[in-house]
Amino acid sequence: MTQSDSLNRPYEECGVFGVWGVPDASALTALGLHALQHRGQEAAGIVSFDGERFHQHKGLGLVGDVFGDSRVMATLPGTVAIGHNRYATTGGTHVRNVQPLYADYEFGGLAVAHNGNLTNSATLKQALVKRGCIFHSSTDTEVFIHLIAISLYTTVLDRFIDAVKQVKGAYSLITLTPDDGLIGMRDPLGVRPLVLGRMPGYEHGNGGWVLASETCALDIIGADYVRDIEPGEIVVINNDGLRSLRPFGDKGGRFCVFEYIYFARPDSVLEGQPVYEARRQIGCELARESAVEADVVVPVPDSGVPSAIGYAAESGIPFELGIIRNHYVGRTFIEPTDQIRNLGVKMKHSANRPVLAGKRVILVDDSIVRGTTSRKIVDMVRAAGATEVHMRITSPPTKHACFYGIDTPEESKLMAATHTLEEMAQAIGADSLAFVSFDGLYRALGHANRAEGARRYCDACFTGDYPIELVDKEGNLVA
């Protein structure tokens, strides 16, 4: 697994989208990927199928950059398509790593889009290379391609099941084949999200099906939410309709709790829980747990906004937009020199001086990773005239690396793993610092405490309790 040394906050783990039985499937897929842009900004790709042939287009950049030309969309005909937004958690930023990956087999073509990370991909790759498999990318997604190729089963679906039974990790998959159609799946513990929707007209038996990482992608194309794909469930969508398979049985679920804190869009609903309301409730819990006298509550945009609203409502302290975000600075922005790199925070955020000057400020943010971004934001708020700056964080301290598809630094570079709370406050320059407690986090999600809630969620980045075996890490292998 490759983890960037330049990260100052965790980054998303990719977005997937697929439609079946819909005119202009590729155009709808591009819209769905646009709604999932927050999950990956490095690259985007679409593969469509017109009933006879597969068509594909992919490239580096945002969805609008890759698919903004109508001439490109015209090369992607068909009533079925899958798409992918990439943020690299394994492999570098190269066109060969852009998904969906496509391969020609003896049974025909197959395309796969993958969100998450495999914890035994390096181990599997080593074995596959010894068998003569030739890898063309450095992404762990290609492991699926080769496992399907060497499977001794006859049908594509059986080959697919054979492949996924050999991998370990946190993932959601969407696969497109000529005969079995659209295949969607979540890993056996359901760490990564995947939802099912239907296009208008399904009441009369002619509406298409949709698979997506989040419900916000259903909303943009006017699809109705049906349900979440269950942990370990495989859904097969084709001309015969939809059927569900559960080759792993019921292993419970450990959904990534950070989806609610930061990753998902606030207008999405995941596992039946509205993300916006979850974040607002976390802010309320923070206000109850770590109250401090202040004049304004200010979010660090954008993920801190709902929680800051909750904090302000619970505390009675006014909510103000004291920091303004520039939405036109992407995460792929080139930072060639130290001088420009040090201006990175000011490029993304600017202080609203009239709101901050002479005020005691509570800053609400989602996490502290290395601490360098938090330090620059605190300094910026002080430079705007704030008399006190109190930082409140809507997650517990991030003390452990994620191996399940979220790009975080190694543990030695995580501030909370190497500093006490007091040392962290001093390092970022805050007058006080507080994180939401584990019990507070799970109360916000509707549970009595962590002992109850942790049975449903993965919170390994906070606790080190990894629910899925870290095969490559334990074997000192790197994907």
From TrEMBL:
It comes from the Bacteria. Its cofactor is [4Fe-4S] cluster; Mg(2+). Mg(2+) binds at residues 303, 365-366. Transmembrane segments: none annotated. Binds 1 [4Fe-4S] cluster per subunit. Binds 1 Mg(2+) ion per subunit. GO terms for molecular function: amidophosphoribosyltransferase activity. Gene3D superfamilies: 3.40.50.2020, Glutamine Phosphoribosylpyrophosphate, subunit 1, domain 1. Keywords: 4Fe-4S, Glutamine amidotransferase, Glycosyltransferase, Iron, Iron-sulfur, Magnesium, Metal-binding, Purine biosynthesis, Transferase. The active site is at 14 (nucleophile). [4Fe-4S] cluster binds at residues 256, 402, 458, 461. Pathway: Purine metabolism; IMP biosynthesis via de novo pathway; N(1)-(5-phospho-D-ribosyl)glycinamide from 5-phospho-alpha-D-ribose 1-diphosphate: step 1/2. Its EC number is 2.4.2.14. Residues 14-240 form the Glutamine amidotransferase type-2 domain. It catalyses: 5-phospho-beta-D-ribosylamine + L-glutamate + diphosphate = 5-phospho-alpha-D-ribose 1-diphosphate + L-glutamine + H2O. NCBIfam families: purF (TIGR01134). HAMAP family: PurF (MF_01931). In the C-terminal section; belongs to the purine/pyrimidine phosphoribosyltransferase family. Catalyzes the formation of phosphoribosylamine from phosphoribosylpyrophosphate (PRPP) and glutamine. This is Amidophosphoribosyltransferase. It comes from Gluconobacter vitians. The gene is purF.
